[in-house]
Specification:
Blueprint lengths: L12 E4 L6 H20 L16 E6 L5 H14 L3 E7 L2 H10 L4 E4 L8 E7 L12 H14 L11 E3 L3 H11 L8 E6 L5 H8 L11 E6 L21 H9 L4 E5 L6 E4 L5 E2 L1 H18 L5 E5 L5 H8 L3 E5 L3 H11 L3 E3 L5 E3 L5 E2 L1 H13 L5 H7 L4 E2 L3 E4 L3 H14 L7 E3 L4 E4 L7 E7 L5 E8 L2 H15 L7
Parallel strand pairs: 2-3, 2-4, 3-6, 7-8, 7-9, 12-13, 12-14
Antiparallel strand pairs: 1-5, 4-5, 9-10, 10-11, 14-15, 15-16, 17-22, 18-22, 19-20, 20-21, 21-22
Helix pairs in contact: 1-2, 1-4, 8-9, 8-11
């Protein structure tokens, strides 16, 4: 008997197939999603209190990545959905932002079958409401989990007397045209770019958006493909560019081909990582500042006061630059459901995370790595300087990156840090907040530094991020906090 609390977490479904979930579990989740999210949203109650008479039947859109387990899981999930009387539109292979695009333009809830950057034996589901609005535990996923568990434990409900129908629609060309309409790079100087798809879905989307595979006009780009073959076994490297080892091939290829930049995407291509002409990584915080300034200036040119969202792990440079440019900057917790909610609540034009998720109001407040890539290409190609020169402007501080520590007692490890830095601080006054984990800041006086220590939701891990005005201070704070965290444990 499956315990769905092991695979349905805060934001999505994720687990090993078939050990943790299989087609029967997918069918239960599909039936639960239809009844808990899709039908109630379709049969909404207007503000005047009179029930709406829907114009057509409820329906959802389903996409999938290239993982071998995807077909069987999608078939079963769709069967659960149609058994509840809900129609299905299958758009086939796509990136996660391709699914968001479909959910946005078709105004239907969506389900994307992907395990993102996880290894080949994993699969998962990212679900959204119509318009690509997020579904998390606090916005419907808890009820989906409860109902699906009930169906698995006690049996499925009787099928609808009018079951849904399954249709198919190709949307890659529409997706590519939609993105190109948001950022027009036809007039930039010619650029050579290496694109590492990691055998993931960017192997489908990059030639459509950056090339002419979807029938669009050629762009002034010389694109060098790296691992574009769709292969869910990931034969070349894991599709997780957040790990430096997975960027090594891209960095070498950029230098080998004398390219202007390199782009790397994760397995479902919703995240984009950038390396400069030397093969050196450009931090996601620098990309957030670069793209954010472009969106801020566009918003101001249209007579609006721009709002930009960033999570609390991004560099202090992000609010520095964007605030100085006239943006209202909102700091939020880590996690795409939090960012998306803040984006919508604040009508924000842009949002960025340290993990290379980038969110756009013009893209249904959702994240899209490919649109961020177009912005980087535009920013580089609209002026004569190298990307390393641009990136240097937006990386004035030194960061540690995220460091994970496996601990025997998360609470005790955290308390050691609190005691040293908050209860009995030896280095002057600090600011403390607990928006997401523990953030301690000594930024308003010298030496300038801050750190955030967050516990994992699923593992006995503490995640540390440190930033300082110079490298020596960053290293000192990093090593001191890690020594406290790991006082009775080894590095993960």
């Amino acid at each position: 008997m499956s315990d769905l609390t092991q695979i349905i977490k805060a934001y999505d479904v994720r687990g090993v197939v078939p050990d943790q979930w299989d087609a029967e579990v997918a069918r239960a989740i599909g039936a639960a999603f239809a009844r808990a999210v899709v039908i109630p949203e379709w049969a909404h109650i207007p503000a005047d209190g009179e029930p709406a008479e829907p114009a057509d039947r409820p329906g959802i859109v389903i996409g999938q990545d290239m993982r071998e387990s995807g077909d069987a899981l999608v078939e079963a999930f769709a069967d659960g959905v149609v058994s509840a009387g809900v129609d299905v539109v299958r758009i086939g292979l796509c990136s996660t932002d391709g699914l968001y695009h479909a959910a946005g333009v078709l105004e239907r809830p969506g389900a994307m079958f992907t395990a993102s950057h996880n290894p080949a034996q994993y699969n998962g589901i990212k679900m959204c409401r119509a318009g690509a609005r997020p579904v998390g535990l606090a916005s419907g996923l808890a009820e989906v989990r409860r109902l699906a568990q009930e169906y698995l434990d006690s049996g499925f409900p009787a099928p609808s007397p009018t079951p849904g129908a399954v249709g198919h629609r190709e949307m890659l060309a529409e997706y590519a045209a939609y993105l190109r309409a948001l950022v027009d790079i036809r007039g930039i100087r010619p650029l050579k770019v290496v694109v590492d798809a990691g055998n993931g879905m960017a192997g489908l989307t990059a030639p459509a958006v950056l090339g002419d595979a979807a029938g669009l006009d050629p762009l002034p780009l010389d694109v060098v493909p790296l691992y574009w073959e769709l292969d869910g076994s990931f034969p070349n490297h894991e599709a997780n560019p957040l790990e430096p080892k997975n960027l090594e091939d891209l960095r070498a290829a950029v230098v080998e081909h004398d390219a202007d930049l390199g782009l790397a995407f994760d397995g479902d291509a919703d995240r984009c990582f950038v390396v400069d002409e030397h093969g050196d990584p450009v931090s996601p915080s620098a990309v957030t500042a670069l793209v954010g300034l472009r969106e801020v200036e566009r918003e101001k040119a249209e007579g609006r006061t721009p709002t930009v969202i960033h999570n609390l792990i991004t560099s202090r440079a992000v609010p520095d630059f964007l605030g100085a440019a006239g943006a209202r900057v909102v700091r939020t917790r880590v996690g795409h459901s939090f960012i998306k909610a803040e984006m919508a609540d604040n009508d924000a034009v842009f949002g960025g995370e340290h993990s290379a998720h980038y969110y756009f109001r013009d893209f249904f407040f959702a994240d899209t790595g490919m649109l961020a890539a177009l912005h980087v290409l535009a920013a580089l190609g609209e002026q004569p300087h190298a990307l390393s020169d641009l990136a240097e402007m937006y990386e004035p501080y030194v960061s540690s990156g995220e460091i994970n520590s496996t601990v025997d007692d998360v609470v005790a490890a955290r308390e050691r840090v609190v005691d040293a830095y908050v209860t009995n601080p030896g280095g002057g006054e600090v600011e403390v907040d607990e928006l997401d984990g523990l953030t301690v800041s000594h930024w308003d006086s010298h030496p300038q530094w801050w750190f955030n220590l967050r516990a994992s939701n699923t593992e006995p891990l503490l995640r540390l991020n440190v930033e300082a005005a110079d490298e020596d201070i960053m290293i000192k704070v990093r090593d001191d906090v890690l020594s406290l965290v790991r006082a009775t444990t080894d590095e993960n």
